Amino acid sequence: MENKPIHILKIIHGYPPAYNAGSEVYSQSICNELKKKHHISVFTREENVYVEDYHIRAEKKEEINFYFVNMARAKDGFHHEKIDEKFATLIQKIKPDIAHIGHLNHLSTGIIYELKKQKIPIIFTLHDFWLMCPRGQFLQVNFGNKVFHQLCDGQENQKCATNCYNQYATGLPFYHRHNLTEWKDWIQVRMQETKDIAQNVDIFIAPSHYLRNRFIHDFEIPEQKIMYLDYGFPLDYLKNIQKKEKKYFTFGYIGTHIPAKGVNILIEAFKKIEQPALLKIWGRENATNTKALKEMAKNSPFEIEFCGEYVNTDLGKEVFSQVDCIVVPSIWAENSPLVIHEAQACKIPVITADFGGMKEYVTHLENGLLFEHRNIQSLTTQLNFGVQNPEIMQKLGQKGYLYSNNGEVINIENHCEILENLYKQIIQKK
């Protein structure tokens, strides 16, 4: 086993370039590194409305075998027996040594049962709260209320039905079967399912202490079954950044434009700053969300520029070279945001919220700035500090990643060595 290649099956609900959020980018990074010594298969989803549901398409790219299951219409459930059946046939054919799951949303919880039946060991990296929160982020929908996207302090079936699924329980009379009692029952079944599959996982990985503690205390994962391991990064494209000349101090946002990311809070806070500056917003544009954000940005006294999507391997030269500071304004309890680490790898200071895994990697006035979570005025105060103190901000950025002696984030090579050793230990136990 010591030098023998391992056949690793990576399971993730999306894969770049079609899906480009943190868990997907991380999955791509480890697959590209692990394939240098091991056999890699990826089971993921695609959405093709012209192909039958659950069809699996195989493709080999860059020495990785991909298996795309079509989830164009059935993506909102949690357990899809048709996926389970096809997945069982697939793993019987390809015979992986171990499965490393990143996310099962838009796939099927039954995947874990099929792996267990075929005695394939399972590692599960936690990227959010999906196992313990039906919506994944402990953000309430609050449909029909003036206050929406409120933080949820914990999962409870009736509360989930009332505050998050009430949007499906209202409307015309022919919707009467979708009442809150039925949604409460659905949530109960769903939560029992995720607790059951958790018992069949060999080891969980949490990329932040915050996330690990939440799963231990709120979801009753045994401490010995969940380990802390921060993300690793391919650093070649995050080195030797050549800064471009800028007229004004420049803030940057990198990521999706969904409400959970708090881009609206950043825009509102930026509109209140006292001195000229520039805000550049990167990320795949969304027909609804991005349009609303652009409308919000129109009356800003200082320029807000929407820069579109980026290729992750171009982050250094195309994104970080243009900014003096990165802002991570998420309104949910982010786990271990990749963008914080990537900015720190480039010695760019970060402004983020004093909450969740965000504050775990940024210490106020040591390697960045913290603002009160979800507080626009508090964020404005920190933005003003950045504009007024560019030299201090530059020094904060130089501190980089505080969990290492030299300020360097964990490189992907060292990270994958840890994963390899973990794979081997678990395989040997089986």
Instruction: Categorize the overall geometry.
Output: globular
Supply the helix-strand structural class.
alpha/beta
DSSP, total strands: 14
Strand content: 15-25%
Q: What is the top-level CATH class of the largest domain?
A: Alpha Beta
CATH fold name of the largest domain, please? Rossmann fold
Kindly provide the radius of gyration, computed on alpha-carbon positions and rounded to a whole number of angstroms. 22 Å
- What distance lies between the first and last C-alpha atoms, to the nearest angstrom? 13 Å
- How would a crystallographer describe the biggest sheet? 8 strands, mixed
Q: Helicity range of the residues?
A: 25-40%
Order of helices and strands: EHEEEHEHEHHEHEEHEHEHEHEEHHH
Shape-level CATH architecture of the largest domain: 3-Layer(aba) Sandwich
Q: Order of strands across the widest beta sheet?
A: 3-4-2-1-5-6-7-8
| Mean pLDDT over the residues | 92
Low-confidence runs (pLDDT<50, min 5 residues)? 172-177
What does this protein structure show overall?
The protein is α/β, with parallel strands linked by helices. It folds into two domains: 7-137 and 188-232 and 411-429, Rossmann fold (3-Layer(aba) Sandwich), CATH 3.40.50.2000; 236-399, Glycogen Phosphorylase B (Rossmann fold, 3-Layer(aba) Sandwich). The protein is built from 13 helices and 14 strands. α7 crosses α11 (376-388). The protein is globular. The two termini are 13 Å apart.
